[in-house]
Amino acid sequence: MRKTVKREKQDQWGQRLRSVLNEKKISYRRAASLAGVSVSVIDSWTGNSSPANLQAVRRLCDALDISFSWLLTGAFEKTDRQISLAESFETVPYFDGLARIRIDRLIPRKKTEE
Questions:
Q1: Nearest 5°: CA angle at 16, between 107 and 58?
Q2: What Å distances lie between residue 21 and 15, 16, 94, 97, 112, CA to CA?
Q3: I need a labelling partner for 34 at 20 to 30 A (CA). Which of 18, 67, 80, 99 fits?
Q4: pLDDT tier at 90, thresholds 50, 70, 90
Q5: Domain spans, the chain
Q6: Confidence of residue 110 (pLDDT cuts 50, 70, 90)
Q7: CA 19, 9, 13 angle in degrees (round to 5)?
């Protein structure tokens, strides 16, 4: 059971990172440069790998102006700074069919309680 919970947390961390990079239109190459790591590290982070270098994650968060604790845990910090759309909403397909445009409806993320 512990492995399943750990795996889910890793997947959520990767999903949050992918979401932020997509929202800000940041390529893996650019994210790797900002974090000071290789592109393969960013690729593993957006997959299901836990970060071994938290300083690199912190550099990336600072460069992208996102919350370090939110990215890693999904929990928001008490702060006065503006939060990004990726931090506030999940993206789910609203209309996905034979069309040239895809529209996603933004749904507020559920607050996690510890």
A1: 135
A2: 10, 9, 21, 25, 22
A3: 80
A4: confident
A5: 2-77
A6: confident
A7: 25
Query: What does CATH list as the number for 2-77?
Result: 1.10.260.40
Burial class (CB in 10 A: 0-12, 13-18, 19+), 20: buried
Euclidean distance between CA atoms 32 and 101, whole angstroms: 30
Q: What would the pLDDT profile of 3-38 be if each residue is shown by its tens digit?
A: 544 445 445 888 889 999 998 899 999 999 999 999
Q: What is the model's pLDDT at position 10?
A: 47
Q: What value does the mean pLDDT take over residues 68-78?
A: 79
Residue whose pair of structure tokens reads 């702060």 in the numeric block: 79
Report the predicted TM-score, pTM, of the whole model to 2 decimal places. 0.58
Q: What is the Cα 95 distance to its own chain's centre?
A: 23
What are the b/e assignments for 74-103, b being 16+ CB within 10 Å?
Answer: beeeeeeeeebebbebeeeeeeeeeeeeee
